[in-house]
Amino acid sequence: MNSEKDVDDLAAKLLDAKRIEDDAKLARINAELQLIDICGSKAEGLMTVSTEKFRVETKAVISRTIDKKAFDELMDQVGDDVRSMISTAVSWKPSLRLSEYRALRDQYPDARAELDRVITSRQGKTQVSVRGISQG
Question: Whole-model pTM?
């Protein structure tokens, strides 16, 4: 059985490591911002600066999302030729609605079993949270 002292020691060690990690992350972010400032970056895409010692790449990314309702309205308004061209640039990715998926287990177990055949599940990392307790 683990003693309270073991838990306290490891919790303190974890909090210290997180502080060190946070400081290192801040230093990394500051260095990245300074490199972007002196090396530059494109509005989107990769830019490279090379020195005798280093090759520095800055890569700007633009995230794009589609408003499904507006997209459906657009597709209803355009002609077949334009709809065909637009369709080549868009794909729909199925996503799982977790609460409904879990509800299937009790309400429709056969449907849940069928759906489970096409779902890949991977165990995520177990999270640990430590907070100090004030004495008083």
Answer: 0.65
